Amino acid sequence: MKLFYIDATMREASRTRRIASPLIEELGKRYEIETVKLDGADFPAVGSSILHDRDNGIVPQEYADMARRLAAADRIVIAAPFWDMSFPSALKVFFENMSLYNITFGSNDRECFGLCRCEKLLYITTRGMDIHTGDPLEQATPYIRALGFLWGLGDIRVVSAENMDYSSPEQIEAKISEAVRKGMEICRDF
């Protein structure tokens, strides 16, 4: 079984990474893991020239190959901090480069449908503000759920720790520990 891990943490001391690392280690006991670290990956923003190429059937081979591996993954884990009410732009650009017709999604005369075989996705995040999953101000999870619909990603679970920028060091440690505990529970049947 294969797991595709998208690491969109940008700092070595990332609080999100501190939650994700033990969960990935645990999942590594059951899954073959491919990790894509987005910090420094330099995926291009999808603009007119890339769209022109795609319209003419031109996609860089390395992106098509990666999108195929992503689509073939049994599980996906995303680790990304809460930035500007969503997640880092590097993650959005990655999604745009992996959203390839007849690889991660397809369509017929009436609708789009997902081509990914992923049955479960785990989204791991930390938020500096006191904004919870499902709050209208939190736009990362709704986007990931919408992308999950397009790509056919299955069950989407979220592990988060909130209000991290306004907590004492002791509170931060407790929140990270609690998020790891919740994540480990999810890992049991992930």
TrEMBL record:
InterPro entries: Flavodoxin_fold, Flavoprotein-like_sf, FMN-dep_NADH:Q_OxRdtase_AzoR1. Pfam families: Flavodoxin_2. Gene3D superfamilies: 3.40.50.360. It comes from the Bacteria. Residues 1-181 form the Flavodoxin-like fold domain. This is NAD(P)H-dependent oxidoreductase.
